Amino acid sequence: MHELILKPGREKSLKRRHPWVFSGAVAKVTGKPASGDTLEIHSHTGEFLAVAAYSPQSQIVARVWDWTKREIDAGFFRGRIERALALRAHFLPTSDAARLVHAESDGLPGVVADRYGETVVLQLSSAGAVRWRDALADALETVVRPKTIFERSDADVLALEGIEPRIGVLRGAAPPARVAVDEAGATFEVDVPHGHKTGFYLDQRDNRLRLRELAAKREVLDCFAYSGGFTVNALIGGAAAVTAIDSSGPALGLLARNVALNQLPQAECIEGDVFQLLRKMRDQARSFDLIVLDPPKFAPTAAHADKAARAYKDINLLAFKLLRPGGLLFTFSCSGGVARELFQKIVAGAALDAGVDAQIVEQLSAGADHPVALNFPEGEYLKGFICRVAGGA
Ligand code: SAH
Predict the structure, then answer these.
(1) 3-class DSSP state of 43
(2) Residue 390 Cα, ligand 1 centroid: separation in angstroms?
(3) DSSP alpha helices (H): ranges in the chain?
């Protein structure tokens, strides 16, 4: 087998079972492995450390499949998928939409599998994952038995691996144009071929349900609303009114459809830029009882953290200004490059500059179908707070 030999002293993170090898840690690679091939990783003194997938074009030059010397073959992937499902047995939501495989945190770097009813969506984002596409599809077919396995390998990170995006049916019938899923009694249509990520933001499920519990009689502003995950739940929870903002017209079209499917009163939909619209609302002295800020990833890596911090501060400051006394802010960051502690500091700075006293009343994160492996803290990308603005005197 091909070997990747580390520079002296660079085995430390692997010994703590962190599953990535950065290109700067590599002394040499023996033989001529192709992109996605399996390598044995050894320390400079020749100690075996792991078997991993080779990503020659990426800064993350190898991702660990296993910490023991073993064959990586179709049986390995079948085993990992069975394990991911078994571990979720007690944690899968009462919903027919859930994440079945969560990449590094399930021992499968670069592999995400989401279930939407009878459709499984497979998203591959590393050379090693793409190399084993067929084995992964076969394993999901055998273990999950869906009607369709659809591939959505079009995440931005693929370009860093030098891999062409691929979207299409892998197994079974073509999926319906929109797959309807039930999430705790709410119906959502998911656009599997064209929607964001694999079609829906499954990671916000628990937080949407929390919003449902807190929305009664409140006037709600849902910023970065996408297909209405938060809007629909606010309406089900008895919100007095909901205003939804998104820059994508098609997303708001799907939002209106999802509201209608649940036989709820329509939300006020505004197509535009949240940064500008919040300023406009401030100038118009509009106010709300509950605001959701669920922006896209401003900082994919720590290198973008400064610029992202300014963007988070900006929208959180404006939101604090728009909240009535006693109002609630559901604020999120899904940026891998912004840790929870930093995000809390940014939100604190925003409240200070807005001139409001606020408390964190709840800490939010992704649900149990998005576990965080303890050896892979990067898995905790979604951080949120429910903040409450002080009431009158
Ligand atoms: N809250 C959603 C997910 C939000 S994803 C849910 O729970 O399903 C982020 C959304 O922000 C996307 O729909 C994208 O179209 C939108 N978006 C990105 N930048 C924006 C901007 N500057 N102003 C308004 N919307 C924006």
Answers:
(1) coil
(2) 28
(3) 12-15, 74-87, 127-131, 133-144, 205-214, 229-236, 249-261, 274-283, 305-322, 340-354
Q: What atom of ligand 1 comes closest to residue 275's alpha carbon?
A: 22
DSSP of 50-80, one letter per residue? Answer: EEEEE-TTSSEEEEEEESSS---SHHHHHHH
| CA 119–ligand 1 middle distance (angstroms) | 24
Query: What is the CA(249)–ligand 1 centre distance, in A?
Result: 11
Taking the CA of residue 251 as reference, the ligand 1 atom at the shortest distance is: 13
- Asked if 269 is an active-site residue, the reply is no
Neighbours of 280 (CB within 10 A): 13
Average pLDDT per consecutive 10 residues, the chain (393 residues; last block may be shorter)? 96 97 97 96 98 96 98 98 94 87 97 97 97 98 97 90 93 93 96 94 97 98 98 98 98 97 97 98 97 93 87 98 98 94 97 98 97 94 97 71
Considering the entire predicted model, what is its pTM?
A: 0.95
Ligand 1 nearest atom to the CA of residue 248, by list position? 15
Token code pair at residue 262: 């649940």
Beta carbon of 250 within 6 Å of any ligand 1 atom: no
H-helix or E-strand containing 363? Answer: strand 358-365
What does the block give as tokens for 298?
């401003």
392: left (phi over 0), alpha (psi -120 to 50) or beta: beta
